[in-house]
Amino acid sequence: MGRATLCLPCMLVLLGCGSDGWNTSDGRGNGGDAGGLADGSAPGDGGVSGDGIKGCDPQTFTLAQPPPAEVYLVLDRSGSMAEAGASAGATKWQELEEAVDFVLQQFQSTIRFGLLSYPVDSLCAVSGPQVRVGLESRQEVMTRLKAETPAGGTPTAAALNNAAQSLGDIGEAASAKYIVLATDGGPNCNFLLSASPACSCTHAAANYCCTSYPQTCYGGQTCLDETRTLQVIKDLHDKLAISTFVVGLAGSAEYTGLLDAMAQAGGAPKQGGATAYYPAGSKTEIQAALQAIAGSVISCVIDLQQAPDYPDKVLVYLDGTQVPRDAGKKNGWSYTDSTLTKIELYGPACTELQDGKKHTLTATFACVVN
After folding, report:
1. What is the mean pLDDT of residues 11-30?
2. pLDDT tens digit string along 340-370?
3. Do 112 and 66 contact (CB within 8 A), yes or no?
4. What confidence tens digit (pLDDT) does each residue in 108-118 have?
5. Distance between terminal CA atoms of the chain?
Protein backbone atom coordinates (compact mmCIF):
# COMPACT_ATOMS: atom_id res chain seq x y z
CA MET A 1 0.00 0.00 0.00
CA GLY A 2 1.39 3.38 -0.97
CA ARG A 3 2.32 5.96 1.62
CA ALA A 4 -0.23 8.74 2.22
CA THR A 5 1.10 12.30 2.26
CA LEU A 6 -0.67 15.22 3.91
CA CYS A 7 -0.76 18.30 1.73
CA LEU A 8 -2.43 21.68 1.45
CA PRO A 9 -4.71 23.01 0.20
CA CYS A 10 -8.19 22.01 -0.78
CA MET A 11 -9.69 25.48 -1.11
CA LEU A 12 -13.06 26.48 0.29
CA VAL A 13 -14.21 29.85 -0.91
CA LEU A 14 -16.74 32.11 0.76
CA LEU A 15 -17.34 35.41 -1.01
CA GLY A 16 -19.15 38.59 -0.11
CA CYS A 17 -22.69 38.44 1.19
CA GLY A 18 -25.14 40.02 -1.24
CA SER A 19 -28.68 39.38 -2.38
CA ASP A 20 -27.92 35.71 -3.00
CA GLY A 21 -25.99 35.14 0.20
CA TRP A 22 -22.44 33.80 0.00
CA ASN A 23 -21.24 33.06 -3.52
CA THR A 24 -18.49 30.80 -4.75
CA SER A 25 -15.84 32.08 -7.14
CA ASP A 26 -15.28 30.23 -10.42
CA GLY A 27 -16.54 26.88 -9.13
CA ARG A 28 -13.05 25.37 -9.17
CA GLY A 29 -12.11 26.18 -5.59
CA ASN A 30 -9.27 28.51 -6.53
CA GLY A 31 -10.98 31.89 -6.27
CA GLY A 32 -9.85 34.61 -3.92
CA ASP A 33 -6.39 35.45 -2.68
CA ALA A 34 -6.08 33.54 0.57
CA GLY A 35 -2.70 35.04 1.29
CA GLY A 36 -0.62 31.89 0.81
CA LEU A 37 -0.17 28.70 2.82
CA ALA A 38 1.55 28.05 6.11
CA ASP A 39 4.86 27.31 4.35
CA GLY A 40 4.75 30.57 2.43
CA SER A 41 3.75 29.04 -0.89
CA ALA A 42 0.65 30.12 -2.70
CA PRO A 43 -2.30 27.89 -3.56
CA GLY A 44 -1.56 26.32 -6.93
CA ASP A 45 2.26 26.18 -6.60
CA GLY A 46 4.30 23.03 -7.08
CA GLY A 47 2.66 20.53 -9.39
CA VAL A 48 -0.82 21.84 -8.91
CA SER A 49 -3.33 21.46 -11.70
CA GLY A 50 -6.24 23.87 -12.14
CA ASP A 51 -8.24 21.65 -9.83
CA GLY A 52 -5.77 21.50 -6.93
CA ILE A 53 -2.68 19.49 -5.93
CA LYS A 54 -2.08 16.55 -8.26
CA GLY A 55 -3.23 13.33 -6.63
CA CYS A 56 -5.15 15.08 -3.85
CA ASP A 57 -8.57 14.58 -5.39
CA PRO A 58 -9.74 17.89 -3.92
CA GLN A 59 -13.39 18.84 -3.72
CA THR A 60 -14.88 22.29 -4.19
CA PHE A 61 -17.07 23.29 -1.28
CA THR A 62 -19.63 26.07 -1.11
CA LEU A 63 -19.84 27.51 2.36
CA ALA A 64 -23.31 28.88 3.06
CA GLN A 65 -23.86 31.65 5.56
CA PRO A 66 -27.44 31.76 6.84
CA PRO A 67 -29.64 33.90 4.57
CA PRO A 68 -29.74 37.60 5.50
CA ALA A 69 -31.78 38.25 8.62
CA GLU A 70 -35.25 39.77 8.22
CA VAL A 71 -35.90 42.77 10.45
CA TYR A 72 -39.07 44.82 10.77
CA LEU A 73 -38.60 48.31 12.14
CA VAL A 74 -41.77 48.83 14.21
CA LEU A 75 -41.73 52.56 14.91
CA ASP A 76 -44.01 54.49 17.25
CA ARG A 77 -45.38 57.56 15.43
CA SER A 78 -47.84 58.52 18.17
CA GLY A 79 -48.61 62.17 18.85
CA SER A 80 -45.87 62.54 21.47
CA MET A 81 -43.24 61.90 18.77
CA ALA A 82 -43.96 65.43 17.53
CA GLU A 83 -42.42 66.83 20.70
CA ALA A 84 -39.00 68.48 20.64
CA GLY A 85 -36.03 66.12 20.52
CA ALA A 86 -32.54 66.54 21.90
CA SER A 87 -31.28 68.23 18.72
CA ALA A 88 -32.05 71.90 18.24
CA GLY A 89 -35.05 72.42 15.96
CA ALA A 90 -35.76 68.70 15.52
CA THR A 91 -38.67 66.63 16.79
CA LYS A 92 -38.25 63.16 18.24
CA TRP A 93 -39.74 61.77 15.01
CA GLN A 94 -37.20 63.63 12.87
CA GLU A 95 -34.33 62.35 15.03
CA LEU A 96 -35.61 58.80 14.64
CA GLU A 97 -35.89 59.27 10.88
CA GLU A 98 -32.28 60.46 10.58
CA ALA A 99 -30.93 57.64 12.74
CA VAL A 100 -32.82 55.02 10.71
CA ASP A 101 -31.51 56.53 7.47
CA PHE A 102 -27.91 56.35 8.69
CA VAL A 103 -28.18 52.72 9.75
CA LEU A 104 -29.97 51.60 6.59
CA GLN A 105 -27.21 53.11 4.49
CA GLN A 106 -24.74 50.90 6.35
CA PHE A 107 -26.67 47.64 6.53
CA GLN A 108 -29.27 47.56 3.74
CA SER A 109 -27.11 45.26 1.58
CA THR A 110 -26.72 42.59 4.26
CA ILE A 111 -30.02 42.71 6.20
CA ARG A 112 -33.58 42.53 4.85
CA PHE A 113 -35.31 45.53 6.43
CA GLY A 114 -39.00 46.37 6.45
CA LEU A 115 -41.12 49.09 8.08
CA LEU A 116 -44.30 49.19 10.12
CA SER A 117 -45.05 52.53 11.76
CA TYR A 118 -48.05 52.89 14.03
CA PRO A 119 -50.75 54.08 14.36
CA VAL A 120 -51.81 54.85 10.79
CA ASP A 121 -54.41 57.44 11.79
CA SER A 122 -54.93 60.00 14.58
CA LEU A 123 -56.34 57.37 16.96
CA CYS A 124 -55.31 53.72 17.30
CA ALA A 125 -55.63 52.03 13.90
CA VAL A 126 -52.86 49.67 12.79
CA SER A 127 -52.24 48.36 9.28
CA GLY A 128 -49.86 45.83 7.80
CA PRO A 129 -46.28 46.85 7.03
CA GLN A 130 -45.81 49.94 4.90
CA VAL A 131 -42.60 48.44 3.47
CA ARG A 132 -42.10 44.69 3.31
CA VAL A 133 -38.77 43.17 4.30
CA GLY A 134 -36.14 43.15 1.57
CA LEU A 135 -32.58 44.06 0.71
CA GLU A 136 -31.74 47.57 -0.50
CA SER A 137 -34.97 48.93 1.03
CA ARG A 138 -33.59 52.22 2.35
CA GLN A 139 -35.11 54.51 -0.27
CA GLU A 140 -38.58 53.01 0.10
CA VAL A 141 -38.42 53.12 3.90
CA MET A 142 -37.22 56.70 4.04
CA THR A 143 -39.77 57.92 1.49
CA ARG A 144 -42.49 56.51 3.69
CA LEU A 145 -41.08 57.92 6.95
CA LYS A 146 -40.64 61.43 5.56
CA ALA A 147 -44.28 61.48 4.42
CA GLU A 148 -45.64 60.71 7.90
CA THR A 149 -46.67 63.04 10.71
CA PRO A 150 -46.89 61.85 14.34
CA ALA A 151 -50.43 61.48 15.69
CA GLY A 152 -52.59 59.17 17.76
CA GLY A 153 -52.02 56.65 20.52
CA THR A 154 -49.57 53.75 20.95
CA PRO A 155 -51.20 50.44 19.90
CA THR A 156 -47.99 48.47 20.35
CA ALA A 157 -49.45 44.98 20.74
CA ALA A 158 -51.42 45.20 17.50
CA ALA A 159 -48.44 46.60 15.60
CA LEU A 160 -46.16 43.78 16.76
CA ASN A 161 -48.76 41.19 15.80
CA ASN A 162 -49.09 42.62 12.31
CA ALA A 163 -45.33 42.73 11.76
CA ALA A 164 -44.99 39.13 12.90
CA GLN A 165 -47.78 37.99 10.62
CA SER A 166 -46.01 39.57 7.66
CA LEU A 167 -42.74 37.82 8.55
CA GLY A 168 -44.63 34.53 8.59
CA ASP A 169 -46.47 35.21 5.34
CA ILE A 170 -43.68 36.54 3.12
CA GLY A 171 -40.42 35.85 4.96
CA GLU A 172 -37.83 33.29 3.88
CA ALA A 173 -38.25 30.17 5.99
CA ALA A 174 -34.51 29.83 6.67
CA SER A 175 -33.93 33.46 7.64
CA ALA A 176 -33.62 34.56 11.24
CA LYS A 177 -36.47 36.94 12.04
CA TYR A 178 -36.47 39.99 14.30
CA ILE A 179 -38.52 43.02 15.27
CA VAL A 180 -36.94 46.29 16.40
CA LEU A 181 -39.51 48.21 18.42
CA ALA A 182 -38.73 51.91 18.95
CA THR A 183 -41.20 53.71 21.22
CA ASP A 184 -41.30 56.83 23.40
CA GLY A 185 -43.96 55.63 25.82
CA GLY A 186 -46.01 52.80 27.22
CA PRO A 187 -48.39 50.74 25.05
CA ASN A 188 -52.02 51.82 25.17
CA CYS A 189 -55.17 51.76 23.03
CA ASN A 190 -56.79 48.97 25.01
CA PHE A 191 -59.89 51.01 25.76
CA LEU A 192 -61.57 48.99 28.47
CA LEU A 193 -60.48 48.09 31.98
CA SER A 194 -62.73 45.05 31.61
CA ALA A 195 -60.92 43.78 28.51
CA SER A 196 -59.10 40.47 28.66
CA PRO A 197 -56.32 40.66 29.55
CA ALA A 198 -57.04 43.77 31.58
CA CYS A 199 -55.14 47.00 31.13
CA SER A 200 -53.96 49.34 33.90
CA CYS A 201 -55.29 52.78 34.57
CA THR A 202 -52.70 55.58 34.48
CA HIS A 203 -55.19 58.34 35.31
CA ALA A 204 -55.81 59.52 38.89
CA ALA A 205 -59.57 59.19 38.45
CA ALA A 206 -60.77 55.80 37.27
CA ASN A 207 -63.86 57.29 35.59
CA TYR A 208 -61.57 59.00 33.11
CA CYS A 209 -59.46 55.95 32.37
CA CYS A 210 -59.68 53.79 29.24
CA THR A 211 -63.08 55.22 28.29
CA SER A 212 -64.48 58.26 26.56
CA TYR A 213 -66.21 59.43 29.74
CA PRO A 214 -66.73 62.32 29.92
CA GLN A 215 -64.95 62.77 26.59
CA THR A 216 -61.65 63.84 28.11
CA CYS A 217 -59.85 60.56 27.46
CA TYR A 218 -59.16 60.47 23.74
CA GLY A 219 -57.75 57.37 22.11
CA GLY A 220 -57.19 55.38 25.26
CA GLN A 221 -54.00 57.20 26.26
CA THR A 222 -54.61 56.74 29.97
CA CYS A 223 -54.84 52.96 29.59
CA LEU A 224 -51.61 50.96 29.91
CA ASP A 225 -51.89 47.79 27.85
CA GLU A 226 -48.89 46.11 29.44
CA THR A 227 -50.23 42.57 30.04
CA ARG A 228 -51.37 42.02 26.47
CA THR A 229 -48.22 43.58 24.99
CA LEU A 230 -45.92 41.41 27.09
CA GLN A 231 -47.89 38.30 26.12
CA VAL A 232 -47.67 39.16 22.43
CA ILE A 233 -43.90 39.66 22.61
CA LYS A 234 -43.43 36.43 24.55
CA ASP A 235 -45.59 34.46 22.11
CA LEU A 236 -43.68 35.82 19.13
CA HIS A 237 -40.42 34.63 20.66
CA ASP A 238 -41.54 31.32 22.13
CA LYS A 239 -43.94 30.17 19.41
CA LEU A 240 -42.73 31.84 16.22
CA ALA A 241 -38.98 32.28 16.90
CA ILE A 242 -39.23 36.04 16.31
CA SER A 243 -37.03 37.99 18.71
CA THR A 244 -37.89 41.58 19.65
CA PHE A 245 -35.34 44.29 20.43
CA VAL A 246 -36.75 47.23 22.40
CA VAL A 247 -35.47 50.81 22.00
CA GLY A 248 -36.82 53.32 24.53
CA LEU A 249 -36.84 56.81 23.03
CA ALA A 250 -36.90 60.12 24.92
CA GLY A 251 -39.99 60.25 27.14
CA SER A 252 -40.06 56.53 27.93
CA ALA A 253 -38.08 56.68 31.19
CA GLU A 254 -41.18 56.35 33.36
CA TYR A 255 -41.82 52.96 31.74
CA THR A 256 -38.34 51.55 32.40
CA GLY A 257 -39.64 48.52 34.27
CA LEU A 258 -42.11 47.63 31.54
CA LEU A 259 -39.62 48.19 28.72
CA ASP A 260 -37.12 45.95 30.55
CA ALA A 261 -39.76 43.23 30.85
CA MET A 262 -40.62 43.61 27.15
CA ALA A 263 -36.96 43.26 26.14
CA GLN A 264 -36.54 40.16 28.28
CA ALA A 265 -39.73 38.60 26.92
CA GLY A 266 -38.52 39.29 23.39
CA GLY A 267 -35.39 37.22 23.88
CA ALA A 268 -33.00 39.94 22.73
CA PRO A 269 -32.00 41.97 25.81
CA LYS A 270 -29.19 44.50 25.64
CA GLN A 271 -25.94 43.01 26.88
CA GLY A 272 -23.75 44.71 29.46
CA GLY A 273 -26.00 47.66 30.23
CA ALA A 274 -28.05 48.87 33.14
CA THR A 275 -31.28 48.01 31.31
CA ALA A 276 -32.45 45.12 29.15
CA TYR A 277 -33.82 47.57 26.57
CA TYR A 278 -31.79 50.15 24.65
CA PRO A 279 -32.33 53.63 26.16
CA ALA A 280 -31.91 56.24 23.42
CA GLY A 281 -32.73 59.84 24.25
CA SER A 282 -31.01 61.52 21.29
CA LYS A 283 -30.33 60.94 17.61
CA THR A 284 -26.79 59.81 18.39
CA GLU A 285 -28.02 57.30 20.95
CA ILE A 286 -30.75 55.99 18.62
CA GLN A 287 -28.20 55.56 15.87
CA ALA A 288 -25.81 53.70 18.18
CA ALA A 289 -28.58 51.41 19.43
CA LEU A 290 -29.75 50.56 15.91
CA GLN A 291 -26.17 49.94 14.76
CA ALA A 292 -25.53 47.57 17.65
CA ILE A 293 -28.76 45.71 16.97
CA ALA A 294 -28.14 45.46 13.23
CA GLY A 295 -24.63 44.11 13.71
CA SER A 296 -25.83 41.50 16.18
CA VAL A 297 -28.27 39.90 13.71
CA ILE A 298 -25.47 39.15 11.20
CA SER A 299 -24.27 35.67 12.07
CA CYS A 300 -20.60 34.85 12.63
CA VAL A 301 -21.38 31.12 12.43
CA ILE A 302 -20.27 29.57 9.13
CA ASP A 303 -21.49 26.17 7.96
CA LEU A 304 -18.72 23.93 6.57
CA GLN A 305 -21.35 21.39 5.46
CA GLN A 306 -19.02 18.51 6.36
CA ALA A 307 -16.26 17.90 8.86
CA PRO A 308 -12.69 18.28 7.51
CA ASP A 309 -10.50 15.16 7.44
CA TYR A 310 -7.77 17.05 9.28
CA PRO A 311 -9.51 19.61 11.52
CA ASP A 312 -6.24 20.85 13.02
CA LYS A 313 -4.91 21.78 9.56
CA VAL A 314 -7.71 24.15 8.57
CA LEU A 315 -6.70 27.75 7.84
CA VAL A 316 -9.23 30.58 7.73
CA TYR A 317 -8.79 33.97 6.04
CA LEU A 318 -10.96 37.09 6.16
CA ASP A 319 -10.36 39.42 3.22
CA GLY A 320 -6.98 37.77 2.66
CA THR A 321 -5.78 38.08 6.26
CA GLN A 322 -5.43 34.90 8.26
CA VAL A 323 -7.74 34.59 11.26
CA PRO A 324 -6.03 32.61 14.04
CA ARG A 325 -7.71 29.60 15.53
CA ASP A 326 -8.64 30.27 19.17
CA ALA A 327 -10.04 27.44 21.25
CA GLY A 328 -10.78 30.03 23.94
CA LYS A 329 -13.35 31.61 21.61
CA LYS A 330 -12.28 35.18 22.24
CA ASN A 331 -10.15 36.30 19.30
CA GLY A 332 -10.14 34.20 16.15
CA TRP A 333 -12.20 31.21 15.09
CA SER A 334 -13.17 27.89 16.58
CA TYR A 335 -15.39 24.92 15.81
CA THR A 336 -18.81 25.35 17.37
CA ASP A 337 -19.04 21.76 18.65
CA SER A 338 -17.61 18.26 18.35
CA THR A 339 -19.26 17.62 14.96
CA LEU A 340 -16.69 20.01 13.39
CA THR A 341 -19.22 21.00 10.75
CA LYS A 342 -19.47 24.68 11.72
CA ILE A 343 -17.01 27.35 12.74
CA GLU A 344 -17.63 30.64 14.51
CA LEU A 345 -15.60 33.83 14.37
CA TYR A 346 -14.92 35.75 17.59
CA GLY A 347 -13.52 39.14 18.53
CA PRO A 348 -12.33 41.57 15.84
CA ALA A 349 -12.95 39.09 13.00
CA CYS A 350 -16.61 38.72 13.96
CA THR A 351 -16.96 42.47 14.46
CA GLU A 352 -15.60 43.06 10.96
CA LEU A 353 -17.94 40.48 9.46
CA GLN A 354 -20.87 42.29 11.10
CA ASP A 355 -20.07 45.78 9.85
CA GLY A 356 -22.59 45.71 7.00
CA LYS A 357 -19.97 45.54 4.22
CA LYS A 358 -19.29 42.70 1.82
CA HIS A 359 -16.39 40.46 2.80
CA THR A 360 -14.45 37.51 1.42
CA LEU A 361 -13.97 34.57 3.77
CA THR A 362 -11.82 31.66 2.62
CA ALA A 363 -10.63 28.43 4.21
CA THR A 364 -8.03 25.84 3.22
CA PHE A 365 -8.38 22.17 4.11
CA ALA A 366 -5.63 19.61 4.14
CA CYS A 367 -6.06 16.64 1.78
CA VAL A 368 -4.27 13.31 1.15
CA VAL A 369 -2.04 12.24 -1.74
CA ASN A 370 -2.16 8.44 -2.06
Report:
1. 37
2. 999 999 999 999 999 999 888 888 877 666 5
3. no
4. 999 999 999 99
5. 9
Instruction: Identify the structural domains of the chain with CATH numbers, from first to last.
Output: 5-66+299-369 (no CATH), 70-189+225-296 (3.40.50.410)
pLDDT score for 56: 59
Residue range 130-167, pLDDT digits in tens: 999 999 999 999 999 999 999 988 999 999 999 999 99
pTM score of the predicted model = 0.81
The identity of residue 368, as a single letter, is V
